[in-house]
């Protein structure tokens, strides 16, 4: 709080979220983003308070620039789009993020093409075709890497809906605790009766 006050931000304009789990909802952040207007400056304590990955951060700041909104990070003070130097640093970040996405896509396509040429077949598990199983495995890999957005993963593995993507992730073991809502991975637990380690211990004790 003190760091934001030193930046000249009024207490009524300071938003905070307290959450557990990387995928938890952030209502404070969502509310803040909805009220930003042209000429405003969004100040965050650290970059990971607003973005889950470098590509996510660059997309957010691109959107801010289109709306005339500035962005600053207190801990990473070299990120400040109100200054020419800060904008230059951000452009470097954006280039790195784009390169990272391009490399992931290129390697995936090369791997799939190599598998097709060699006639590689992946053993089938009950419930999914060979092609769907391959997509499920890729979906889990990219989701766990946390470098691509859901939309980017869908496009990369050629999935037409979020419902199908989450079906694949569930097949690979993605679960949501029915007590606290935290996400975890455990293929052995049923979707409608899944408990994270914390609540599983309470039930067993």
Please describe the structure with a list of short key phrases separated by commas or semicolons:
2 domains; Rossmann fold; mainly alpha; 8 helices; two-stranded antiparallel sheet; flat; 205 residues
How would you describe this structure to a colleague?
- The protein has 8 helices and 4 strands; from the N terminus they run H-H-E-H-E-H-H-H-H-E-E-H.
- The chain has a two-stranded parallel sheet with strand order 1-2. Strands 3-4 form a two-stranded antiparallel ribbon.
- The chain starts with a helix and ends with a helix.
- Helix 3 (54-67) packs across helix 4 (84-118) and helix 5 crosses helix 7.
- It has helices at 2-6, 27-35, 54-67, 84-118, 130-145, 150-156, 162-171, 197-204; strands at residues 41-44, 70-73, 174-176, 183-185.
- The chain has 205 residues and is mostly helical.
- The chain has 2 domains: 2-92, Rossmann fold (3-Layer(aba) Sandwich), CATH 3.40.50; 123-204, no CATH class.
Entry summary:
With 205 residues, the chain is mainly alpha-helical. It has helices spanning 2-6, 27-35, 54-67, 84-118, 130-145, 150-156, 162-171, 197-204; strands at 41-44, 70-73, 174-176, 183-185. Helix 3 (54-67) packs across helix 4 (84-118) and helix 5 (130-145) crosses helix 7.
Architecture blueprint of SSEs:
Elements lengths: L1 H5 L20 H9 L5 E4 L9 H14 L2 E4 L10 H35 L11 H16 L4 H7 L5 H10 L2 E3 L6 E3 L11 H8 L1
């Amino acid at each position: 709080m003190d760091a934001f006050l030193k930046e000249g931000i009024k207490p009524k304009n300071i938003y905070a979220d307290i959450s557990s789990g990387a995928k938890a909802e952030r209502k404070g952040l969502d509310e803040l983003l909805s009220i930003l207007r042209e000429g405003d400056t969004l100040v965050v304590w650290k970059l990971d308070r607003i973005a889950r990955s470098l590509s996510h951060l660059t997309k957010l700041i691109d959107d801010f620039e289109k709306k005339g909104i500035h962005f600053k990070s207190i801990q990473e003070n070299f990120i400040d789009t109100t200054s020419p130097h800060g904008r230059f640093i951000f452009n470097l970040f954006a280039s790195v993020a784009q390169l990272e996405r391009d490399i992931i896509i290129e390697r995936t396509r090369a791997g799939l093409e190599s598998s097709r040429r060699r006639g590689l077949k992946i053993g089938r598990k009950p419930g999914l075709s060979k092609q769907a199983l391959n997509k499920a495995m890729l979906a889990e890999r990219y989701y766990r890497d946390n470098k691509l957005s859901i939309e980017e993963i869908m496009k990369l593995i050629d999935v037409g809906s979020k419902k199908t993507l989450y079906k694949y992730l569930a097949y690979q073991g993605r679960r949501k605790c029915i007590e606290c809502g935290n996400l975890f991975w455990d293929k052995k637990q049923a979707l409608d009766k899944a408990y994270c380690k914390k609540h599983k211990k309470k039930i067993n004790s």
